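Step 1: inspect the first sequence and its tokens.
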Amino acid sequence: MEQTIMKIVIDRNIPFIAKPLASLGEVTALKGTEIGPEDVKEADVVITRTRTHCNADLLEGSKCRFIGTATIGTDHIDLDYCRENGITTANAPGCNAPAVAQWVLAAVKTTLAPGQSLSDKTLGVIGAGNVGSILIRWARGLGMKVLVNDPPLEEAGSREYDFTSLDRIAEEADVITIHTPLVKDGAHPTFHLIGEEFISKLKRNPMVLNAARGEVADTIALKNGLRNGLISSVGIDCWEGEPKPDSELLEMALIATPHIAGYSREGKIRATEMVLKALSDYLGLDKPLQADAPTLAPVAQSISEDAIDYDILADTALLKKNPDRFEDLRNGYDLRKEP
């Protein structure tokens, strides 16, 4: 279904995408939080990020038939509504996985005592998907003992990992990091998975990290865990209630960043490439659209501890000093380089 004259609305903070889309027609770039029904009414395509809620309120009566999100998650898209109304959707799974793994290891590195290395730590990884799998590979390459929990993957028959229980992770891990989608029902819900019950079982006063979705960790439970010594420190990139993180948890957190764990230059290029490919496939283009960026090298199979040189404490200091600028810090983030 080749099409050459289109109306396209995009989130203005998606890089490397406006130029290739201009070859299809008229491109309107707007702030994600400000994209409204009037903006998309005549649009054929909407390409956005997590701050635009793509649901009936936005889309009812519009011409839109394709929604692409330059993100892993699709929580902000009403997928059922889109299916029922003939709207094709596409996301970018795994686009920022190496950057999130970098964020995790940089966070852990800040806790090392003089003479310690990452190999002295036992890492509990909850969720072995796109992010978790890279993190597991890199962490093991660094000599870390890694415990892996992923019930859906285990039930699917995966033999890639020796899966373990959450209870064992609670007992043995020095660092616990979660990399699941936000799931509120079904056999394996993740809403408040890191909550009072799980935290009560912690044995080694671990560091707890959340760079998945804000609601997978219970804010109140995290604060209680820090107060009573069950948790030694927390690192949070994804917050309940963002872009207005809990002020007390923000103050208590060792690592606090404005949802930028995946914000590497390479990750942004991948996200744009994936959305453009999906749109090209949808339109049946003979020549697929390409991101306005250099071709990327393959993701590193392993990394050295010295390569984890991302200054995560600088990003933490910025957010703690400017909590009301959460969105500005996120949208204006200086994209870092992956290891």
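Step 2: inspect the second sequence and its tokens, then contrast the two.
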Amino acid sequence: MSAAAEPVAREWQRYSCGERIARFVVYLTLVAAVVLSVRSVEVIPEFILDAPEQVADLLKRMWPPDAASYPQEIHQALLDSMHIATVGTVLGVLMALPFGFLAARNVTPWPWLNWMARLVLIATRSVNTLVFALFFVAVFGPGALAGTLAIAFHSIGFIGRLFSEALENTSPGPIEALRAAGAPGVSVISFGYWPQVVPAFWSLVLFRWDINVRESIVLGLVGAGGVGMVLDNAMNLFLWGRVAMVLIAILAVVVLAEVAVTYIRKKIL
């Protein structure tokens, strides 16, 4: 009788041969992309080596901050930025809600209407707020109106997309019960979908307002109103003490907005 064949030892490997090749290709592509990017941005080594000295010199010019300019130049501009963020968020929410309902597949059963709504959400989300601001400044002129509309239109895609996902994750039980009872479409939305997405809705609104507060500050650099215009003018006139005061005021507003959003979320959610 022939001896029984000994079992062949099998070596465990985390990835198969195809997976290892795919990972190598991905890593090689990333490295090549980084190398091409570094070469295309034309980094000047002399500027990098000189940066610490230039930063130290700039900080010396910015000290002490020009506190006397706050009540005259900065305070009202900060309020304008807050108003731009608040009104722009409200307008963005009002325009985003219909598209959110149309983009949700379980609410709107027509695929072509879903795709049209999703296209609007993608288009408004893909265009940067500064690009919207430049467009509205060209149409309406410099000022808070251009900044408000830029904030509102860019917020449509963000709020509408996340709101439609919240609608699609709702439980179908209450909706089916309302439809079985013969409730009209408005009642199904009001009493079936809406109560389930209220926490997500308010979370989105607060989060978007917090983001818009930061963005409204930057919009002034392109003439769309707010404290960014004061910062841009101070930098152009080399008033570094005023620049420092503007930056301190912006930091304070951002921190206060973060604290306010956190407090409100704890109270209503």
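Step 3: confirm your contrast with the notes below.
The chain has a mean pLDDT of 84. The chain has ten helices and no strands.
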